[in-house]
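Final report, results section. Input specification for complex C-07:
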Amino acid sequence: MAYSKKVIDHYENPRNVGSLDKDADDVGTGLVGAPECGDVMKLQLKISDDGMIEDAKFKTFGCGSAIASSSLATEWVKGKTIDEALEIRNTEIVEELALPPVKIHCSVLAEDAIKQAIEDYKRKREKKGGVQQEETAEA
Amino acid sequence: MPTVIGIDLGTTNSLVACMRDGVPTVLADERGVKLMPSVISIGEQDVMLVGDLARHRRVTAHDRTVFSVKRFMGRSFEEVKDELHLLPFLVQDGESGPVKISLFNREYTPQELSGFILRELKRRAEKALGQELKQAVITVPAYFNDAQRQATKAAGFIAGLQVLRIVNEPTAAALAYGMTNRDSGTVAVYDFGGGTFDISILSIKDGVFHVLSTNGDTHLGGDDLDEALMEALLPSLPEEAKDDRQIILGVREAAERAKCDLSSEMQTMLSVEVPDKPRIELELTRPQLEGVMAPVIERTRVACENALKDAGLSAGEIDEVLLVGGSTRIPMVRALCAEIFGREPRADLNPDEVVAQGAAVQADILAGGTRDLLLLDVTPLSLGIEGFGGIMSVLIARNSTIPASATEGFTTAADNQTAVVVHVLQGERELAAENRSLARFDLPVDPLPAGLPRIEVEFLIDADGILNVTARDLRTGKGQTIEVVPSHGLSEDEILGMVKAGIEHGREDMDRRWLVEARTEAEIVLNSARKAVAQAREAGFDEDRIKRFEAQLDALDEARKSDDHAVIRAEQQRFNAETQELAGDLMDAAVKRALAGQKLEEA
Amino acid sequence: MVTELAPLSPDLDHFALFGFDRKLVLDSAALDAAFLRLSRECHPDRYAVAEPEIRAVAERNSARVNDAKRVLSDPVRRAEYVLELAGVERPDGEAKCPPDLLMEVFELREKLMEDPGPELVERVLSLFADVEEKLDGLFSRHDAAADDPSRLEALRGIRETLDRRKFLMNLTREVEGTLGKP
Ligand SMILES: Nc1ncnc2c1ncn2[C@@H]1O[C@H](COP(=O)(O)OP(=O)(O)O)[C@@H](O)[C@H]1O
Ligand SMILES: [Mg+2]
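Structure output:
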């Protein structure tokens, strides 16, 4: 049950609450929602050129479960590479807790948000890469 | 059709009733008294005394007497430890089981002690009705959780009763009220007793009693008012009295008496009398008392507001307010009630008896007598399970009509996992840890790859408000019932053991019991007679008259040593008759003295 | 004394149990009447002195009636239930929640946190009123549908509108919480 305590701690003292500049090139933003409970979550990652997640922030309007899992997710991804972060599954927590997987939709949010943020970042990179190429071409 | 009795098992007082010629009737004891104090005391020769006799021993035999046992039913030590300093008896942590209450030379569970009260009520009813009784309906505060209900049911079994139904006290009161007032409408039942507070809102129509919502506090009652008053009085006690356990107990008793007096008087003399100790007297006025009680009474307001909200009603939509429980005799309580609901509460019900009467009506419905009434009650608290991250996931919301059920699918997260832990909770908080943990059980699963097992678990809250769990393996179709032993509760085997002990107890030597009861009663009479002697001297009564009285007193004391209960009883009756006149005169003198308003003094 | 009691058929859905057609607009008086009739038949009080097996059936039957009543008497739960019966699910994956809806809701919530002014409150409440009105229209459309395809189309609309309603509902609660503050 030690794990459960940790999650509760995230619920009571959420870490990494806030925003990063969504227009910055090195920031990816994920915006997800769970219609089952009406929760919305924004999760942002600041990613270095070599694909390392340097910072993570989130803003969640929703139940404690969603807040706790967002907080936990941001802690986890910091210092990981993009590929490692994509590996994270919320079922891992459930597994460790040996708890019934109820209310899972809230916790799946975090997983989805990470994916979306990374995709957003990749899209920006591609675009930027594209622009740079164009620029180079013009030059 | 065998008679089913209805029992109001109260924190302070208990009653038993049954339907007689279509009228719910509270049954009285041999002396015509209906209210039985919920007090248990171990008398001479280890005879268990219950009721009035035990109540009189609260101060004189405080190490052998327990009361307010209902406060401990289905509760963990953790939940009750903060209020133990106010009680004169020892309550210990029962760890995973119920708390243990020390009574003289043994420890008892609250279930066993409540069992003694129930057995005494059963005995009374059998005597009054002249027939053996086996089945009963027992009332509980509407806000009782699953564990508290299970504990009450267990107490019934231990007392040798088949408990046909656990009924909510305010609902029972509404039933008794609705029997005689056949109009339709929306009623609020405000039940403020000795240890608990409940508010229920019902719609009554065409014989259907539909509970819309309920709320309350299972630790809020007249006891808390007594405590508040006692705390307020402590500073004005003489120094040497402050550490005297017996005096403190005496102050508590006196505080309760004064509180009750001040429901009808504007001022009273609070007098603390402990054998062989100087008498303490303090003057108290109603405004003083109200100042002390206000914050406690005010706590009932928010529960009323929540109940209205959950019922989707405004105060103006309530047609009648019914008052139940001894503490609703307090004018300040009535005023608050009138203020919350914007109307004067009904004053024509007997707040002490109406719950027992309603229990009798429900008992008759269950026995198949009354057929046209239908009672639809609700579960007071949300039921859920602990889910991801220690969050409670609600399966059955509070105020759902019972019986109610919910099913939840479970599977495994790891390969070859053989059990899934299910943690059942009751309460309204989001975090599992802040709700009452009802039970934790392992759901057995066949070892298979993760996610493959499919177990469907049905949670059913029955008409008693008690949880039943069944599980079905969707792959094999195999079903099983899971015994949910509540945390800090008793298992079926433990209950059976206590039932057996109860049967033994039932076979005890009746002659011996009567003897001990007669002796105890004589002792109580003697105690108060000795006080009377002191008062008579103080009041300057004729010394010859006092001497004659003392002679009578000695005679009773002598008779008390007899081994024949009939001899003791006869002597006591003679004593009562012969000394009645002096007792009357003494009473007059005491009243005069009180009216003269003697100030703080020690006799 | 009752010696036999059959469990309610598991094949009946909540509507059938109450003797109703599968409609999204229900007459609450008729619902109450049907509920009372069933309760009188099923309630465990009638079987209290029967054998334990019979009592257990009565508890379950009665729970079934009460559970059905809870769902049917709430328009939103009733609609969710019909969607479930009809097997209408959210399109899976990322389209789970339309991104513009999320954006709209998220922005409103952020603004609400910064400055819960009366204008914003007004806007949220009117958005919620709109969604309720739309839902009512869809319910009637569903009930009046002449054939399966048009019914299904109404249900799809209901699915989407219910999701929107859920997000706005949370916002409305938030707004009402702000209003409640002195
Ligand atoms: N006249 C009165 N004024 C104030 N309180 C009273 C009066 N009569 C009884 N009480 C209080 O009512 C409580 C007992 O009420 P009761 O309904 O019998 O409780 P319970 O149902 O919890 O056993 C006690 O706290 C007692 O002091
Ligand atoms: Mg009571």
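Chain C has two domains: 14-73, 99-178. Residues 39 and 62 of chain C are 7 Å apart (CA to CA). This concludes the modelling results for the funded period.
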